[in-house]
Amino acid sequence: xxxxxxxxxxxxxxxxxxxxxxxxxxxxITALVGPNGAGKSTLVQGIMGVLKPIAGRVRCEVPKxxxxxxxxxxxxxxxxxxxxxxxxxxxxxxxxxxxxxYGSAEYRxxxxxxxxxxxxxxxxxxxxxxxxxxxxxxxxxxxxxQEAQLLLLDEPFANVDAATIDILIEVLRxxxxxxxSIIVVLHDQDQLARLADRVLHLxxxxxxxxxxxxxxxxxxxxxxxxxxxxxxSA
Length: 234
Ligand SMILES: Nc1ncnc2c1ncn2[C@@H]1O[C@H](COP(=O)(O)OP(=O)(O)OP(=O)(O)O)[C@@H](O)[C@H]1O
Prior knowledge:
Bound molecules: adenosine-5'-triphosphate
Number of domains: 1
CATH superfamily: P-loop containing nucleotide triphosphate hydrolases
Protein name: ABC transporter ATP-binding protein
CATH architecture: 3-Layer(aba) Sandwich
GO molecular function: ATP binding
Helix content: 25-40%
Organism: Salinicola rhizosphaerae
Keywords: ATP-binding, Nucleotide-binding, Transport
Pfam families: ABC_tran
CATH class: Alpha Beta
């Protein structure tokens, strides 16, 4: 579904990742881990094609309309005047176009998705008035509407309450079970153990493939201390 071939990525003139190889199968959840500044967001940008490789390449079989990306919350500007329902329905845009009216089957699917994510009571609420966790649920709702086959999430559980994390993990596991390939940047060992099938560990420019169990025995504490300041990297 997605292959990285000797991929090297830079930010400005700083080499961030060198010679990364990997294969991401349909139906698997891969956690991207590593200390602050290791290049997790940089790799996500490289996979999504917003950052061009300085060497190697990203080969992706998933059409652009079926790739979805949830950037870090800090990188999101949700002041755009849009309701929860409008955001969820906008998941149709890549295949349907943004100007055509939605059909009744699409509206029904949107309603089912909002119900699944516990968003029904919030459907007319503007995005700017949502809490962090409500916003993450709405954004995940849009990717469900899009029927994404490849989903990248950058720290989706930051500032999200435990009940919402449970819902998000359940929905992500169901998406993987239906064949979606998911890549998720994580810092928390417990979330990693609950969610990931495989782990790509980034450190000092290099990438190592490992398993959630190996991570747990190597690092029982949180994987990295959160020390981000506003205006983060994604
Ligand atoms: N737009 C940018 N311009 C210049 N350097 C950047 C830019 N974005 C990131 N960097 C640098 O690239 C390196 C990798 O950053 P990146 O954000 O990918 O790390 P990360 O692993 O996602 O970190 P964190 O855990 O803090 O989110 C860091 O040294 C960072 O300072």
